[in-house]
Design a protein that fits this description.
Layout (H helix, E strand, L loop, with lengths): L1 H8 L6 H8 L3 H8 L10 H8 L3 H17 L1
Helix pairs in contact: 2-3
């Protein structure tokens, strides 16, 4: 979910800790989501999208773009 990391670094959300606090998860979970090591529960996607100022579709499109790149390699 690189869109999350890009938006956070752009200043939408200052730290992973603040994201974690807002979502009620550990900051390690946010780090894993941003680095593609794991994915959040689907039930959390609307809250994540609202927090990052994007749509659920944008979050999901980001993952499908990554999957397409991996298949091209």
């Amino acid at each position: 979910m690189n869109v999350m990391k890009k938006r956070r670094l752009r200043g939408a959300i200052p730290t992973q800790r603040e994201v974690a606090k807002a979502l009620g998860v550990q900051s390690a979970a946010v780090s894993k989501w941003e680095n593609g090591l794991s994915k959040p529960r689907t039930s959390m996607l609307p809250a994540i999208a609202k927090l990052y100022g994007c749509t659920v579709d944008e979050l999901l499109d980001d993952d499908s773009d990554k999957n397409a790149e991996e298949q091209d390699e």
